[in-house]
Amino acid sequence: MVIDSKQLKTLFLDFFTENEHSLIPNSPLIPEYDPTVLFTPAGMHPLIPYFLGQPHPLGTKLVNVQRCFRTGDIECVGDSSHLTFFEMLGNWSLGDYFKKQAISLSYDFLTNKRWLNLDKKRLSVTVFAGDQDAPKDLESFEAWSSCGIPDDRIYFLSKEDNWWGPVGNTGPCGPCTEMFYDTGKPACGPNCRPGCSCGKYFELWNDVFMEYNKTPSGCFEFLKQKNVDTGMGVEHTAAMLEGKENVFQIGAVRPIAQKVEDLASITVPDDVQERSIRIITDHVRAATFFLGDERGVKPSNNDRGYVLRRLIRRAIRFGRLIGIEQDFLTDLADIVITLNEADYPLLREKQASIFEELNKEETKFKRTLEKGLRKFQRIAENCPRIDGKDAFLLFQSFGFPIELTKELAAEAGVEVDVTGFNNEYACHQKVSAKSATKLFKGGLSDASAETKKLHTATHLLNEALRVVLKKKDIVQRGSNITPERLRFDFNFDRALTPEEIVAVEKLVNDQIKNALPVVREEMSVQDAKTKGAQGVFDDKYGNSVSVYSVGGFSKEICGGPHVENTSELGVFKIKKQKGIASGVRRIRAVLQKCDQ
After folding, report:
1. Residues 259 and 232 in one domain
2. Would residue 327 count as lying in a domain?
3. CA 589, 592, 594, 596 torsion: positive or negative?
4. Structural domains counted in the chain
5. What is the pLDDT of residues 85-115, one digit of tens each?
6. CB-hemisphere CA count at 13 Å for 95?
7. What is the torsional sign of CA 382, 383, 389, 392?
8. pLDDT greater than 80 at residue 304
9. Smallest Cα–Cα separation from 587: which of 456, 440, 461?
């Protein structure tokens, strides 16, 4: 029996709930109570506070399927495996079971006839080989041996292959064990092994054993609470289970790609066309989920909106590359919604707004595209060869991929300095990588003292704005926190006056001087509503939630972490305010030492 992605998700969730794991909600793509990250990049990310020791309302054994998005993979899309948006299956132990039971559960799900029923003889695994930081993972080796995996199919690999490092430079980390399935393809050579890129071994699943904490000094110490974090990519695994060569051929994705081919009148795509089809398919799929998320995001030139705009415009320009002249984004988005509305009904509910934003962005970018074509014509008329800098200008300023520039150049009878373009692009990538590291660094594994303080300050700011502006409907529309500052977005239709800013600062600082305790409670969603906790109440919550109260001043649903008392914060100071969208304001603020 062929198992598709929908059946895979059902089987996985059923297996772990039968094994006493609590099913937790699929969190939004745009984190609501994690102020330090733009998107949900992995299934485990919403659980980071609980890996650090905070009790989870639903217990110590958890399972779910999670929507994810990875900005760093945008440029990689086009090959057989990369997607920016994907779903991740995961099961977790928060200080409960560890290596032996985690491996036993993984093996059972993969090979038991009730579940995936994979051939045991084609299963290989890798474990951590050990180094100066941590010993050889013999416990995992023995666990796999007890399941029946022979020694010659258990591979000891280095930290590069079998170690999950902390999200930042410090925090929870540990060895992992990965499971691979032999596809039947011939080995590429005598050194072919799991992890090889030749295609013989298909990576199924990764079990991470977080038993260490990397300290600021670079040392590895044992965690008091040892956790298990596993991850299985839905689309990636479905490709193998459905017998497909790549993720764009599975039932959950192929109809989108097929529509792209129809729009471009392509029957058998060549390599360039295939890459464009995959990019369009992935980007429109991701954009539709962004626009249909619980919290939503609109195209803009800032943060999440910038990423969304980039996806949409890349889809449009690659559509042009393969000959799609008409508007097409909503045609594809409708297919995305149809394929996914059973699991994500909000997509259909928000269909009108999704189509509206896509149409607006498509109309706007077409003007830019036309300007780029005119710029190309001016460049091509004045020289027999388009140099690397001009080719990169067309890419960066007008969104022209090098393939489009080369195609236009061939029609005009001129050459393109592709090497020069690649050099310019490589320099741009280095700068972008540094910026992205700074922009997207975070996650609550960066539970530094300064980040905690600023996180608590956002709760005070949120309530102070409601009080000073006399608007109880003010809600957080986004935030980002680094150890240096907080950034807080909220709904308000005008700039704050200087007097209002002073009043907000004073109200926050009064709560700091009052040395209010910060208390975390677990309660039902109904109790949280009754007690006036701030939050967007919908069906994504489980039976109970975490609520943080700052004295009697502020009460919000939140994942933490926070300081224990407001007296730890220092002096709150607003440094800047501005509008970032219609009806949305942004405040940047800092905490200063009392003598500053």
Report:
1. no
2. yes
3. negative
4. 4
5. 999 999 999 999 999 999 999 999 999 999 9
6. 14
7. positive
8. yes
9. 461
